[in-house]
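Fold this sequence, please.
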Amino acid sequence: MYKIAVMGDRDSVLGFKALGIEIFVADSAAQARPILRRLAAGEYAVIYVTERLAEGMHDDIDSYKDRLTPAVIVIPGKDGLMGLGMSSLQNAVKRAVGADILHT
């Protein structure tokens, strides 16, 4: 059975534990890279990454964009919206549909 994980700073991810989502605390892209690789090689179908963490991991996250699993999804952290999640979603939709139908 597949699992769901969330990575980010402690304050941003701790609440996900109450939902049954496995949390992985990382305060920098350097800390997060090996965790992401380990999760992607395991039983995780969905991996959420906070925007602050994803900021320094574009290439790492992009390497999973064309794979069926895991789906690596950028979400806002405790700092609020930075726009990286929406940008990532727009790019994925544009690749799938061929047009930017979510243009804001």
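The radius of gyration is 13 Å. The domain at 3-97 is CATH 3.40.50.10580 (Rossmann fold).
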